[in-house]
Structures are given as C-alpha cells and as structure tokens.
Amino acid sequence: MGTAATRAKGKYNNANYDEVKIRVPKGFREELTEAIKSAGYDDRSEFIKQAIQEKLDRESIKLH
Fold it and tell me: Which of 3, 13, 36, 59 is the most buried (most CB within 10 A)?
C-alpha cells in the first residue's frame, strides 16, 4: 500500500490537483524530457503548463 509519506502525498495531490493525460507516440515522452532538460528547464509538467498558457495567450483564449 506504500509508505505513509507516499499515501499522504497522494491524498494531497488528489485534493488539490486535477490530472490531464495525453497520449504520444512511443519514445516521444523521453525525447521531450531530454529536450526540456537541455533547454535548461527542470520540470516537464511546468514546461508543458507554460507552453499551454502561451498558446492560450497567443490565440486570446481565456479560461473561466
């Protein structure tokens, strides 16, 4: 069932975050992670969230 710390993190994440999943071709995730790291970013999720926000801004799409 995991350690108490793992369960606590899972409970916190479930209460505070939504999850968005996408499917990509095999190998793409690893290539993306390497490219993000080589560009000086540490966190793939943060990079993707920033990329989505930039796209929304460029296209003047507002979230409610």
Answer: 36
Q: By the 8 A CB rule, do 1 and 7 touch?
A: yes
* Distance between CA atoms of residues 23 and 55, nearest Å: 19
pLDDT in tens, the chain (64 residues): 679 999 999 999 999 999 999 999 999 999 999 999 999 999 999 999 999 999 999 999 999 8
Supply the range of the domain harboring residue 35.
23-64
pTM for the full predicted model:
0.75
